[in-house]
Amino acid sequence: MGALPARLRIAFERGGEMGRRMAALDWSGSPAGDPSAWPPELVDAVVTMLRSRAQIVIFWGPEYATLYNDAYAPTTGGKHPAHLGRPGHEMWAETWSMIEGLFRRVHESDEAFYDDDHLFMIERFGFIEETYFDISYDPIRAEDGSIGGIMCIVAETTGRVLAERRARTLSALGRRLADAPDLADPGPLSARELSLPIDAVGALVVEVTRASPWTTTTGTSWSSRRRRSPGRWRTCGPTSRSVAGPPSWPRWTGRRPPSSRTSATSSVPP
């Protein structure tokens, strides 16, 4: 690495973990090139990014080389820090067509793009997950006015979005049960309601009676849109099911604690 501009050298020194990693990285294999030769607009963007507490990632150049700050690092999950300086399509391969489309929109419109609760299906910890972000994709302009890269400022909203949707699902289920003319067998009715929203990937409606300490499944539902590994369910002993679920579903058993209600609805754990 050649001699750095003073502003960039200070930014690396004071830029936390990612500043230190940028200072130590061998940039010879990165499409971003040697930091000593970065154009002024990229230097300005990196200095701003490293001193910010917002989650920021910069995608620079034709291959969208990836540069990010400490606040953004947790967003990458297990991909940190191996993808620092690497092309963007390597970091977010699983959703690159969407991201590249947003970048193209910035280039074609010649203005920033903003969206609330934008959906991304990304892999951070070895599996694809549904995530949501507030995003602002801002062009980084060269001296001639062309767009040399994109500065992305994001804030993950996944927890709030899913919590609100699940609350609406449970509210709708409560209204449906309250309006039901006959609650003698609420299992199938609950299973039908829970088979619709994407938030209830699978559900078991469990009836517990005083006559038997064992749980009995009175209704099941399953969404074919997404499946989760049966290994994430606890299994032990037999139960009965009046509505068939998919063949891979485990059979739940286990004694309910004395404080359990006479019925309960359980959705797939997140």
Task: Describe the structure using short key phrases.
Beta-Lactamase; alpha+beta; 270 residues; 7 helices; elongated; 5-stranded antiparallel sheet; 3-stranded antiparallel sheet; 29% helix; disordered C terminus
Walkthrough of the structure:
The protein is of the alpha+beta class and 270 residues long. It folds into two domains: 6-156, Beta-Lactamase, CATH 3.30.450.20; 184-267, no CATH class. The protein has seven helices and eight strands. The protein has helices at residues 6-14, 16-24, 40-50, 88-91, 96-109, 158-179, 186-194; strands at 55-60, 65-68, 113-123, 128-141, 147-156, 202-209, 212-222, 263-267. The longest helix has 22 residues, at 158-179. 25% of the residues are buried. Residues 214-270 have low confidence and may be disordered.
Give the structure's gist in a few sentences.
With 270 residues, this protein is α+β, with helices and mostly antiparallel strands. The chain has a 5-stranded antiparallel β-sheet, with helices on both faces. The chain has a 3-stranded antiparallel β-sheet with strand order 7-6-8.
